[in-house]
């Protein structure tokens, strides 16, 4: 019996550990990461479908999506879906808009076909890049935690697998991946991190920097989960229909109190993506630096003030 190439085995093992019961869909762009993921999922899984998203941002994108779908059908995936999205009018830059449209489309397809999970092809290298981008933005622990292995229906089996292994797996299996020109376009921040910043760190500090960054993200994510549990319990105690009782919040550590405020702001209707450190700091100042100042404004036109020992929402 021929020996399975190490890269193919590594990808298959990672997928096998992550597969839930029931139908799973692989989100496949045709790039090396998602192509290796798809091949591994088809090998180890029982009920595996494939979905490819056409963002319409590049010439020939529709044909490429059709080609990926044709490969999927020939390889035995079922169902195979092509999701065409329109990114115009979505908030953020091109990357953010495409991501928003893509995740919405994947969620819709999964719901329609009854999939238990959607597998995403993000690798250890993607995780390291995410951490560096978060550091550059001055992100807090939530940003530095990187991408979760699981969130809702989305599963990332390859976060402990290097990008080099997905390329080697494709080569060993005779799969020819598509090279997305956006991945090397310096107009995009992630492409600059991938092509310049991370290689510079590897040259200066050694190749272990990639796995170390990714491992740090996992450690921070575990700490975040513990702190979020404490914050949820504190919010349950302090929150009421009248508002947020600040009497006990004084005694909490900053890490937990700000999580309480972040979660409470989301309960009021502030969109998580627009809720920044600045907004939470303004709420925190109503508790810890009260000088009779005016109300704090949150995304979505939400206005909060301090009144008789409570933080309350008021009309704008």
From TrEMBL:
Residues 244-310 form the tRNA(Ile)-lysidine synthase substrate-binding domain. It comes from Paractinoplanes rishiriensis. It is found in: Cytoplasm. The keyword tRNA processing applies. GO terms for biological process: tRNA modification. This is tRNA(Ile)-lysidine synthase. Ligates lysine onto the cytidine present at position 34 of the AUA codon-specific tRNA(Ile) that contains the anticodon CAU, in an ATP-dependent manner. Cytidine is converted to lysidine, thus changing the amino acid specificity of the tRNA from methionine to isoleucine. It catalyses: cytidine(34) in tRNA(Ile2) + L-lysine + ATP = lysidine(34) in tRNA(Ile2) + AMP + diphosphate + H(+). ATP binds at residues 29-34. It is an enzyme of class 6 (ligase). Belongs to the tRNA(Ile)-lysidine synthase family. Its main location: cytoplasm. Keywords: ATP-binding, Cytoplasm, Ligase, Nucleotide-binding, tRNA processing. Pfam families: ATP_bind_3 (PF01171), TilS (PF09179). It comes from the Bacteria. Residues 24-195 form the tRNA(Ile)-lysidine/2-thiocytidine synthase N-terminal domain.
């Amino acid at each position: 019996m021929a020996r399975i190439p190490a890269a193919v085995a590594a990808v298959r093992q990672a997928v096998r550990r992550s597969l839930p019961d029931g139908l799973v869909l692989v989100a496949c762009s045709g790039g090396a990461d998602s192509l290796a993921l798809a091949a591994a999922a088809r090998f180890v899984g029982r009920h595996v479908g494939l979905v490819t998203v056409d963002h319409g941002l590049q010439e020939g994108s529709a044909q490429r999506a059709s080609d990926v779908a044709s490969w999927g059908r020939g390889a035995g995936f079922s169902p195979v879906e092509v999701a065409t999205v329109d990114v115009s009018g979505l908030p953020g830059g091109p990357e953010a808009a495409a991501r928003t449209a893509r995740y919405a489309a994947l969620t819709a397809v999964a719901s329609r076909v009854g999939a238990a999970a959607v597998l995403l092809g993000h690798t250890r290298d993607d995780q390291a890049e995410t951490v560096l981008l978060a550091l550059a933005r001055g992100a807090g622990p939530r940003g530095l935690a990187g991408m979760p292995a699981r969130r809702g229906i989305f599963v990332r089996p390859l976060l402990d697998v290097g990008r080099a292994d997905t390329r080697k797996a494709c080569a060993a299996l005779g799969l020819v991946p598509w090279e997305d020109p956006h991945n090397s376009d310096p107009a995009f921040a992630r492409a600059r991190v991938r092509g310049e910043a991370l290689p510079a760190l590897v040259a200066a500090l050694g190749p272990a920097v990639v796995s170390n960054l990714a491992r740090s993200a996992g450690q921070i994510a575990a700490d975040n989960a513990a702190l979020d549990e404490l914050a949820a319990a504190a919010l349950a105690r302090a929150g009421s229909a009248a508002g947020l009782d600040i009497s006990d919040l004084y005694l909490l550590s900053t890490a937990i109190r700000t999580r309480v405020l972040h979660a409470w702001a989301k309960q009021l209707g502030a969109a998580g993506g627009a809720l920044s450190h600045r907004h939470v700091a303004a709420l925190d100042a109503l508790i810890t630096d009260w000088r009779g100042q005016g109300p704090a404004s949150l995304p979505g036109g939400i206005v909060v003030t301090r009144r008789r020992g409570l933080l309350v929402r008021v009309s704008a």
